[in-house]
Amino acid sequence: MTSERVTHITKKSENISKWYTDVILQAELADYAPIKGCMVIRPYGYALWESIQTFLDKLIKQRGVKNAYFPLFIPESYLKKEKEHVQGFAPQVAMVTEAGGEKLDEKLVVRPTSETIMYNMYKLWTHSWRGLPVLMNQWCNIVRWEKRTYLFMRTSEFLWQEGHCAHATHEESLAMVRWAMDAYKKTYQELMAIYGIVGTKSVAERFAGGDKTITYEIMTPDGKALQGCTSHDLGQNFSKAFNWTVLDKKGEKLYPWQNSWGFSTRSIGALILAHGDDRGLMFPPAIAPVQIVIVPIFKSETKNNVRTYAREVAKYISKFRVEYDEREGETAGFKFNKWELKGVPIRVEIGQKEMEQKTATIVQRDTGEKQTIALSELTKTIGAILHNMQKTLLAKHKQFTELHTHTVDSYDEFKKIMKTERGFIRAFWCENPECERAIKQETKATTRCLPLNAIKEKGVCVHCGNPAIHRWLFAQAY
Amino acid sequence: MTSERVTHITKKSENISKWYTDVILQAELADYAPIKGCMVIRPYGYALWESIQTFLDKLIKQRGVKNAYFPLFIPESYLKKEKEHVQGFAPQVAMVTEAGGEKLDEKLVVRPTSETIMYNMYKLWTHSWRGLPVLMNQWCNIVRWEKRTYLFMRTSEFLWQEGHCAHATHEESLAMVRWAMDAYKKTYQELMAIYGIVGTKSVAERFAGGDKTITYEIMTPDGKALQGCTSHDLGQNFSKAFNWTVLDKKGEKLYPWQNSWGFSTRSIGALILAHGDDRGLMFPPAIAPVQIVIVPIFKSETKNNVRTYAREVAKYISKFRVEYDEREGETAGFKFNKWELKGVPIRVEIGQKEMEQKTATIVQRDTGEKQTIALSELTKTIGAILHNMQKTLLAKHKQFTELHTHTVDSYDEFKKIMKTERGFIRAFWCENPECERAIKQETKATTRCLPLNAIKEKGVCVHCGNPAIHRWLFAQAY
Known about the structure:
Two copies of one chain form a homodimer.
Chain A lengths: L15 H11 L3 E3 L6 E3 L1 H20 L3 E2 L5 E3 H4 L3 H7 L4 E6 L2 E9 L4 H11 L8 E10 L13 E11 L2 H22 L5 E4 L11 E8 L5 E11 L1 H5 L4 E2 L5 E2 L2 E8 L1 H10 L16 E5 L6 H14 L5 E3 L7 H10 L4 E5 L1 H6 L1 E6 L5 E5 H29 L1 E3 L3 H9 L4 E5 L4 H11 L1 E7 L7 E2 L6 E2 L2 E6 L2
């Protein structure tokens, strides 16, 4: 099944949010569902999620974390056990109040995150230090109610993985928080070719119920910041809320130290934004559902021979993810546009000349570069192009991010940048939530994070002038 | 993380349903959740589901079916579009009535199956024969409300895949219905070593809203029948209910022919029942999360050397799924019992003798057979044992099924068998739903299916004596 028609898409350079929606719908990545805030992930979009799952799940398993599955429904009373947690999530939950034809005694929350249901079970299962660490993850759907859908970015239901671990010491738990962010960074950079800044969230921006949140902040083409994923140090907050203790080696009671970390389908939104252009999507080869499309070009008298050769070529390079487009009723030019829109890294054109010379003409999606290669060299050449394209796309996104990151010491300049070109701003902040709120109100920019590699300096807050020791990263949230 | 304590399990030969629950809880496959009818799938149980997903997803993709993801929530009005469909599922649905702090205008059904939400989208996407066939599948969670949990077998929420395809002709659709059942049969037999009878459901037992249901009926050790999975010919019922037409090659309107097919975590219940014994679980090697456990046996003075050698052995056979159990505070005997309970196909014992002779002692979970093998031969020998064990377990289950399948022509005999030893009964049935109901009421046995390989014969209904042309398969449902 392929699209029945490719129509016009808005230029990315003209209106990025319109382009974003156009390209998702036209490339058949996703569509709106007939439920408020919900979307359907179509096969071409879901294949991206499958690539992410394969890549990340392997890293998770290598770390000794095991997959499990906890219920979709959480008793309302559980969500309420951790005070900040319920305050953070209550406004967004969907509630099941009837089931099996009866009104329920207690409302059930459709999970907005699974801390409370999981930790309740951890408590039942683990009573001694021998049972620690608990290292679990689940791949599942999550519901946080939204009034309006913004495809992939903001939807009432989304897919993610959520890792939830419990440890005997805070140190061990913190190591896990960092490990998870390293795995996410690897996924973003090596699979998705997306650069980002890793850092710690401010108190106002951190996870509801946690002590510390680490984030991966991604710059979008319009100079905004997209929170790519997060990893949370939960301290002992939840073990205390659930009154979960285990006996340590000395036989004394210990509240386990917990962490949680999640990576969601929102990342696909970042992927789309980071690499596309006016002609459509541009997927990095490592994650591209189709790495190479083969388009035969023929007149009616050469049709059979050209097609036979094109199929041979397809077999020849079958170690890559290849799609051979033999669809009738579409011109070659139409197909070129279609697959460019769909972001396929390499197009292979097979015509009479290629057939006669035993060659293939390849065109790169990123540069438009075109070359004709002997069949015997094809696998090697394509392999090298894909490898380089992957590296180049990451390098470009890194360069773009750095080019639009400003080190600013004057609040006037801060305001001016946020009004015009936007981007990331590195500025001293006193860490007072009042200043943070004021800056947000006046510039729409929020603290994105304190980068992990930030050095301690002597400075003054860009807003209030009080002493500050770190340059935080500011940007408008996507 | 492993269990903190292994306690007593009921003997399978004494009380199979008590054994079933004991073994699931003790082996840490799953646990009860604090929500009516819900369960938690623990890592050791979830690994089984991951094996099934890997095996079946590959078959699904080979057939050209692509994965997608549709919303968890279905507007109540959608479910109502197909009359029989809503009657079948309405009593079991869970309803979201509040979300984002507000009462919803229309109640949302938590999907009990996704026909209605998916076909609504198919209609929006596909308007011509060029868009057919639609070949889609999703792996997701499903909710059908249950008052009481029976772990894996009957739970308010379960996991499954649901394939949903649409075709230009009934023939093509029927081919897909059969293909799906072939893929399921392969999964049950080659991965799970579970024999079953493939056949067509009676009108009363088929899918609500479909024209025909094919099933895989599995015999449990107590002679009952477990419906392993189903594949449905939906005819044009849903395309008509949704008024979905596409233009065919002649430009005329065509209602697409649809089918759906599902395989769920219920299959894990069948797996547990089919192979275990009084000592616990017994997993076929192909699906076993751990294929080999290595247990070191030492005195304090040999501890270090034996453990070093055991770790070497583990590396040596790392092409298998190996667990090396170095856990402190448990005797070797305790570990033997623990891993037998957990159904690991092969135990490797490493003691001083093995260390000195560069050998390993291996014990089979199914036969208890014990042999000492030179390290150089170990991989080959283990490979052969696992291969044979897989085949033997399937053969045994097939033999058991055949041994407890009775060809019966007298209703007295029918009743007697169902009162005593149970099993499957092959008996003529007139295909009148009245007789079916009466038989169920009097014997608790239902029609399980008309086996695909049933031959047309001249007979009389075992209940009413009217003419009948086929022997149907009867059994008590698990």
